[in-house]
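Justification of computing resources. Each target in the renewal requires a structure prediction run like the one illustrated here; the chain below, 193 residues long, is used simply to show the kind of job we budget for.
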Amino acid sequence: NKQIDSILKYMRTSLYCLFFMLFCLGIYFLYLTTQSFNHLNANSTESSQIVSKSVFENERENLGKVVYDYSYWNEAAEALSGNVDSPYLEENLEGDYLLDTFDINRVIVYNADGKVIISYANGEQNLTETTPYSQPAFQALVEKATKVDYKSPTPVTSFINISGQLHFIAASAIVPHLESDSVSLGKLYGVLV
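Resulting structure tokens:
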């Protein structure tokens, strides 16, 4: 009888130890799982931020390339020089082409004196809505675009808040890429935004 009692006591102690060990292993497993989830969540957040920043930078860069292509061109400078009767503005900036091809919904052309001479919203001429043009960020961007090397201009890009929505914006000096009879190389004729 005593021997059975001691065996049962030993088994009971062993079961308590086994239960305590399994409980500790469960707590440790729960801790490892939580740490793993936290680590995965941090990696996922960091990865998402990198991807979104990359997308934003690509969009800004692409918009800068488009505005550069349309502004660093003899025809653009000739259209603003007044020396040549050029249909450049109507043929290249009016209509749905920029909206459909590049998702550009607003185009503004300033002359060399900084006056808005033409504005298109969604492909149609629109000089009545001038609210965005007076924002300090917008004015700073246009001013920055005029302070580049006119023989090798670089577009200026940024973001602007219009009516609570964030928009990409790019501006580039309108200058000729080649010397001609009607335009002078290295001279500012306007700014394309």
